[in-house]
Design brief:
Number of strands: 10
Structural class: alpha+beta
CATH architecture: Sandwich
Order of helices and strands: HHEEEEEEEEEE
Strand order of the largest sheet: 1-10-3-8
Shape: globular
Largest sheet: 4 strands, antiparallel
Number of helices: 2
Helix content: 10-25%
Oligomer: single chain
CATH topology: Jelly Rolls
Distance between the termini: 74 Å
Radius of gyration: 18 Å
């Protein structure tokens, strides 16, 4: 009985893992918005494990991107609600710290996108994590358009 119970639990865990991964791998196509005025530069699949304990920072995906002065960028993100029930926070950093983010601490609001006009060419960093370090599945995108001078 004990062995059978463990086999059943193992089988269920495998099904959940396979199903969750399959749902997450297709998120990129669903989350890239219609950005007719923008050119899509990159789309990112975001799949993160649950935080191991509350003292640790949430698991985070980090991508480096080269941004050009005089260009307007739009960063978007979305979450697979069947896997993740909390929002995903995505932020843009430079070497000096946070530039902008999808989360406004003052109002406690999460936004599905933000725009940024680059004032200095260089390497920036996009980060993605899920609130409270929950297991997460979603996608993000980076798009651009030239600003009018």
């Amino acid at each position: 009985m004990f062995k059978t119970y463990h086999k059943i639990l193992f089988f269920i865990a495998c099904l959940i893992t396979i199903d969750g991964h399959g749902q997450c791998s297709s998120m990129k196509a669903k989350c890239v918005p219609d950005v007719s005025k923008y050119t899509l530069l990159k789309a990112y699949d975001i799949q993160l494990p649950k935080r191991k304990n509350r003292k640790m920072r949430p698991p985070t995906k980090r991508y480096s991107v080269m941004l050009s002065k005089g260009t307007r960028y739009r960063v978007t993100g979305c979450v697979n609600r069947s896997v993740s029930f909390k929002p995903m926070v995505f932020s843009l950093y430079d070497n000096f710290g946070l530039v902008t983010t999808s989360y406004n601490q003052n109002s406690n609001k999460h936004y599905p996108a933000f725009e940024f006009i680059c004032n200095k060419s260089g390497i920036y960093y996009l980060t993605f994590y899920f609130v409270d370090g929950i297991i997460g599945c979603g996608a993000g995108s980076l798009a651009m358009r030239k600003t009018i001078k």
